[in-house]
Amino acid sequence: MTHEIVLAPAARRQIQTRHPWIYRDLIASGEAPAGALVRVVDSNRRPLGIAAWSPISRIALRFLSLDPKAEDPSSESLRENFRLAVRRRRPLEELTDAIRLVSSEADRLPGLIVDRYAQVVVVQALTPFAELLLPELLEWILELEGVEAVVARNDSSVRELEGLPREVRFLSGRRSGEVIVREGGLRLSVDPFEGQKTGLFLDQRANRLELRRLVEPGERVLDAFSYTGGFALQAALAGAEVVAVDDSARAVAQISKNAELNGLASVQARKDNAFKLLRAQLEAGEQYDVVVLDPPAFAKNRRDREGALRGYREINVRALRLLRPGGLLVTASCSYHVDEQSFEQMLRRAAADARRDPVLIGRGGQDLDHPVLLSLPESRYLKCLFLRVP
Fold first, then answer.
1. pTM higher than 0.90, yes or no?
2. Catalytic residue positions?
3. Could you say which of 28, 57, 171, 361 would form a disulfide bridge with 150 (CB–CB 3.0 to 4.6 Å)?
4. In a domain? residue 70
């Protein structure tokens, strides 16, 4: 490793907290090819560790190691990081075959996402380092039992910030259409080639299963922002009558397909705008035993935070008013820029607006395959609260 990056004195606080990202304005000097592994030193030229270099992104360095004595990572050591990540997910294998195998910095492979859907593996390389790693990564993936195809879903807008092209291409195998995966007693049809994210929102798995545990047979459930019906189908499996709503015709078709696949005739899939539907249901005097709110991220950046909180407040006020006494609200946010404390404060205001006094009966977050790196607060983004309304 011949390249060295020198940090400005202002980077000291960042290093002390062991945050794995160094922003461009904290770089004093040094250059390297995109994706290169570099030695990082402080302003006094004391070694700090090894990081991956991004010459264009606002995040210039992503640390693989903050050990000043760290050796240059070898292909075998990176391969071992991959193997360890896969091994840590094994407790999930009895429950599901749709698993995130690698989650970027939390698995010491910065910028790399690897999701497995049964026989298909989907890769996202979000940094130049991850992009350069793809040929070796493919070899490691093909060592896993039962893999028939590997696709790179490199169509995220994040790649543009790194100077990388947006594309979808096969690294191995060929397109085989939708894939059937299992999740806690359900069979789900997933499109890893064209669906949102890499095909399924895997991070909510534990919260979907918790909903199933809490739902009673015969209860009436509204699942707003349903996407492909993960929460809706688990509720139906528990014996509930479910209305699943999404404003994407494609998602609604997928909900219906998954309901049919599991013989769940109690799921009614509707194409509608969730904000408008919640208002219309209130005006019509409808009531539900359970309402699920799992919207897409309302805050993509810090500037969106206040507007996001207003949006969350609006839908939660309506959801609380739709609930019968004793009803359950499951409400989530995947916006990192809306922290849990702010989310709870918003819910207190929504409850006051709705003149309801909900009891917090449970908290959920990301499942085992979306680990949180303690020194990287950005890796803890999902909040899911379970509220019982007297």
1. yes
2. 334
3. 171
4. no
